[in-house]
Amino acid sequence: MAQAISASAQRAAARRRQRAAAGTRPRKRTGGRGPSGIRWDRVARTALLATLGVVLLLYISPLHRWLTQRNLAAQETQQLHQLQQQNKQLRSHIAKLHDPTALEAEARKLGMVRRGEREYVVQNLPRR
Questions:
Q1: pLDDT greater than 70 at residue 34
Q2: 33 with 39: CB under 8 angstroms?
Q3: Residue 31 DSSP symbol
Q4: pLDDT value for 128
Q5: 126 DSSP 8-state letter
Q6: What is the largest CA-CA distance in the chain?
Q7: Please, which residues bridge with residue 95 across strands?
Q8: How many C-beta atoms surround the C-beta of residue 74 within 10 A?
């Protein structure tokens, strides 16, 4: 193993000597830059952020639809409760009308009279 290390060191020293004799400097490592100077770490970060932005944009429409449907469901539920209450009142009114005295009172409110009764119409009553 020691011979391999020394052989490697010898090759590196030989390369340095050749460069020094030719007058060229060794290339500096550019820290992630390629030959064209592109910072690939920034490109990857930008692509990741752009992808995240697209995903967020794709979630906007379903979120808006969900909120709209939730509000509509709340309104429909409120209307259902109102109609159920009105139905309950109408059913109680029907139950009252099955009573003969209540039926007669409703008929009299409408201006009806029984057979054999005399109808009187009072006109020009003073206003209070």
A1: no
A2: yes
A3: S
A4: 75
A5: P
A6: 141
A7: none
A8: 10
25 SS3 class: coil
CA distances from 112 to 94, 96, 117, 124 (A): 19, 19, 10, 21
| Gap between the Cα atoms of 93 and 104, Å rounded | 14
For 10-33, how does the pLDDT look when each residue is reduced to its tens digit (9 = 90+)? 888 888 888 878 776 656 655 555
Phi-psi region of 19 (alpha: psi -120 to 50; beta: other; left: phi over 0): alpha
Any idea where the domains of the chain sit in the sequence? 60-109
Q: What is the pLDDT of residues 48-95, one digit of tens each?
A: 999 999 999 999 999 999 999 999 999 999 999 999 999 999 999 888
Q: Which residue has the tokens 């290390």?
A: 5
Show Cβ contacts of residue 26 under 8 Å, excluding neighbours closer than 6 positions.
16, 19
What letter represents residue 72's amino acid?
L
* Euclidean distance between the first and the last CA atom of the chain, given in angstroms as a whole number: 125
What are the tens digits of pLDDT across the range 41-51? 899 999 999 99
3-state secondary structure of 85: helix
| C-alpha triplet 81, 85, 86: angle, nearest 5° | 115
